[in-house]
């Protein structure tokens, strides 16, 4: 099985920055349907700093790179997203400490650790309509697969995030700002889930993995 190099991790983070920056307005508009409309701007503000600093960031090991990105998120991503994304990158970075390349199992463990950290931080449960409702099924799917074909894994986890958009669309949010409007959140997608799905779908496009999305938020 092939491993993932530090250069590939860097390239994928750079692609992610482009996705977040390009969708700044769209993600904020989605958040504005039930929340305070800051999600896109909060995330893009931080990822603009990541994009700018990425060429200079310590890349002696994948863990060190992710910990630096975690610090940028905590400092520059605004609103409730800063601690969530900062914690996610920090916990993934702790698992990748000292590693110069990643096995598939490392990736699965990094996501598992990121999820644990985000849960500990925000206390969200399944069905609370947060980005965890995309991350949990992605992690489950990754554990089912052996990772021998990373393109197949990417298509499969993009499908999980895509499905999570529609499966949670009609739920009432129980965490975050959207929970304060209760019923008004009940016919809008969660912007965090759409964010994860959009990032993964862009990875598919850049890496030449065929995927046809279902949710209308991915068919724009
Ligand atoms: Mg918001």
UniProtKB/TrEMBL annotation:
<dbReference type="InterPro" id="IPR012737">
    <property type="entry name" value="DhaK_L_YcgS"/>
</dbReference>
<dbReference type="InterPro" id="IPR036117">
    <property type="entry name" value="DhaL_dom_sf"/>
</dbReference>
<feature type="domain" description="DhaL">
    <location>
        <begin position="7"/>
        <end position="205"/>
    </location>
</feature>
<dbReference type="InterPro" id="IPR050861">
    <property type="entry name" value="Dihydroxyacetone_Kinase"/>
</dbReference>
<keyword id="KW-0418">Kinase</keyword>
<protein>
    <recommendedName>
        <fullName>DhaL domain-containing protein</fullName>
    </recommendedName>
</protein>
<dbReference type="Pfam" id="PF02734">
    <property type="entry name" value="Dak2"/>
</dbReference>
<keyword id="KW-0808">Transferase</keyword>
<dbReference type="InterPro" id="IPR004007">
    <property type="entry name" value="DhaL_dom"/>
</dbReference>
